[in-house]
Amino acid sequence: MILYNVTIGIDKGVEQDWLAWMKKTHVPEVLDTGFFVDHKIFKVLSQQEGDNPSYSIQYFAKSIADIDNYLQNHAPKLQQDLLLRYKDKHVAFRTLLESV
What we know:
Layout: E1 2-10, H1 15-31, E2 38-43, E3 54-61, H2 64-73, H3 75-85, E4 90-98
Antiparallel strand pairs: 1-3, 1-4, 2-3
């Protein structure tokens, strides 16, 4: 199992709008690509007081080939949607992990 993890720091002022959009729009669009078998969303609890909240969005795939296909053919448009909607209101980094 391969985990594609996206960690996003989001501005407090748009947090609830962003979280609703993620759950209703963005995550379903990612899953509709057919490359992931499951997902989870976690709020990061280990933050400094006063910092903007962070979330870990985890997408589970069966293979690296599925991740590569997603990253090449679908991720650029979906990431652009996030960028346009929440410009200057978020930061994101992505990590690939393999179950051992």
